[in-house]
From TrEMBL, chains A, B, C, D:
Recorded family membership: Belongs to the UPF0045 family.
One Pfam family, short name: Thiamine_BP
Chain segments annotated as transmembrane: none
Ranges of residues in domain Thiamine-binding protein: 4-97
Signal peptide stretch: none
One term under GO cellular component: cytosol
Name recorded for this polypeptide: MTH1187 family thiamine-binding protein
Amino acid sequence: MAIVDITVIPVGTATPSVSDYVAEIHTFLKAYNGDIKFQLTPMSTLIEGDIKELLEVVREIHELPFQKGIQRVCTNIRIDDRRDKENTMERKLQAVQDKL
Amino acid sequence: MAIVDITVIPVGTATPSVSDYVAEIHTFLKAYNGDIKFQLTPMSTLIEGDIKELLEVVREIHELPFQKGIQRVCTNIRIDDRRDKENTMERKLQAVQDKL
Amino acid sequence: MAIVDITVIPVGTATPSVSDYVAEIHTFLKAYNGDIKFQLTPMSTLIEGDIKELLEVVREIHELPFQKGIQRVCTNIRIDDRRDKENTMERKLQAVQDKL
Amino acid sequence: MAIVDITVIPVGTATPSVSDYVAEIHTFLKAYNGDIKFQLTPMSTLIEGDIKELLEVVREIHELPFQKGIQRVCTNIRIDDRRDKENTMERKLQAVQDKL
């Protein structure tokens, strides 16, 4: 199980606002028919699943601003992939909260 | 108002677990006496405040694993700094949720 | 044409050194039979090509430390994907150097 | 000795081009009077020096697009900070090239 933390920045937008593009990503994720979990944070979107499927989802998400006429996209991705333990978003939060 | 999204990865730990180091960051942030808000996510820590103060906090957080004997730290930071509007974590989430 | 900027951090290594893992990535890239260009920098590996092929290469690179017994990998990826112009590593450098 | 790898993305530019802003960073760095080394890559700017000085330089670089009228800046920073060995850009490249 891996977790991806992704931000997609459209470059060359008329205004500083990008919430339309982030909303588009979450509309896509809600309609996505696969084995993932996802969460919106103030700074990015977190997606949990199998690494192969996650990178497929990343590719589709990265394309979304181009479909709205944007000519340049800067996407930033963190991957946390752990194979000795079940690495879910819930378990990672719990592991830290248990130590506070 | 700016928001920082930070991960601090200690390199050369005996095991794959880093939750001790993340808990240390949040113990520091809880005791921190300044004008910031912070939030733990499954993939990073989000901190909201004035950019100058945020970079000071980043420097102190980056040092924490060294104080526990780690010899190498890879820190990853996203900054979202918006000057035309009040750019809080709450407002950013709301801006997207209003469009879903 | 897109460019990926990737760092692959093995978590849980005995020592702070990761150059073995970076060398492994470049051995893979040298043997890779596809339409990409790549470059080693002091902080990451840059790879130029079609976005679909790049994300395939990312997946394979991300797997390499697991094949050497590592149990956790934190991979960080920047993608710069521009569709209005030919976005090569060479052209991007030139565009900046022409303005200095 | 630490190394910072920084990209500064202005959000809300009229066109997809950002080379003016990158050139501005390198004009700043050339005129900067301090103990750092820096290098332009096709995807970012690498800066080597003491971590405290580096974060000061990061703060100044992050401000530059605002001085040109941009209202939102997304800055992405990787820090590699190693304390058991002299961690220069040159030494890191050599450590990998020796293993190829």
